[in-house]
Amino acid sequence: xxxxxxxxxxxxxxxxxxxxxxxxxxxxxxxxxxxxxxxxxxxxxxxxxxxxxxxxxxxxxxxxxxxxxxxxxxxxxxxxxxxxxxxxxxxxxxxxxxxxxxxxxxxxxxxxxxxxxxxxxxxxxxxxxxxxxxxxxxxxxxxxxxxxxxxxxxxxxxxxxxxxxxxxxxxxxxxxxxxxxxxxxxxxxxxxxxxxxxxxxxxxxxxxxxxxxxxxxxxxxxxxxxxxxxxxxxxxxxxxxxxxxxxxxxxxxxxxxxxxxxxxxxxxxxxxxxxxxxxxxx
Length: 282
What we know:
Largest sheet: 12 strands, antiparallel
Mean pLDDT: 75
Structural class: alpha+beta
């Protein structure tokens, strides 16, 4: 009876909002999944968030100083990032972390939220496995959004039409900035087509390791009539010899009022590099 009451209450909240917030949140998750997939697969050949591979591995070789960095073109930075990441990703054999997913919609008199703690494991050769540790909040969001998000991650590795490459984007070097105390190239990215799973905005590439450090972007095409705008904030941190996703936040403004927010905290990683890291790059 409690489950039925929860479903009924969810239905009342959705009706009050005037839109089917489930579809809005699904789109929000799809954007986040595709974002992580583009970044990881395109530059490393191995996906962190939505397929078999666990992330981007940082380099061991010394990189350019901030002064010398300006001598590189945007194309050279992208090539270096891709080359370094291919070598680094090959060294990563296993990881473990506990992720925290949270999604919330606020609008009119409605507030809908759900949370989930997930034990995530990656093993080279077999891919990723997930085990739900705990869950709370809206049963609809848990069953129809959060659980489906986990189920769909392995399928996303088959998609390559949204990779962060020159085939899908124009890159323009905008300068140098510090990210967490480290020098980074700032690149403006502009999609070549209005694909709703591509994005436009800025990326920060670590100047020493040629690893993605930060993303601030929005979808190239509005993915839904009900969405007026979406802002994506994604950060990576260096863990040992690896650059791995640290936190993602996606903020979506709903056209008829309200806001949906997705956050993913990737937790603390336990990483097993099963092979010596070989310097990559061009």
